Amino acid sequence: DNIEPDKGTEKKETVKLSCSYSTSSEYVVLYWFRQYPNREPQYLLRKNARSSGDYEDTSDDRFHSAASRTSTELTITDVRLSDSAHYYCALRVAAQ
Description:
Helix content is 0%, strand content 50%. By secondary structure, it is mainly beta. The strands form 2 sheets. The protein has a 4-stranded antiparallel β-sheet with strand order 4-3-2-7, with no helix packed on it. The chain has a 3-stranded antiparallel β-sheet with strand order 1-6-5, with no helix packed on it. Strand 2 and strand 3 (42-50) form a beta hairpin. It holds the Pfam family V-set.
């Protein structure tokens, strides 16, 4: 007998990473980067928060971010082995 996996039932995994921050500014821009060993950090996305609006700019449609007043969360859908890396969040206080 020949047994083959049912390719239609492969589950696409989702991972969520969170990052807390503190600032009194209402104009906040949040960034997510990832870094592979011995490589430069790689830009993933930018997310405006608070009074900066809800704009999001991403380098890959699998990456999305949500933000509250004190934290941000990176969601990676359809996780792949190549997503194994160190992830960093960064905050910039934007001009009004």
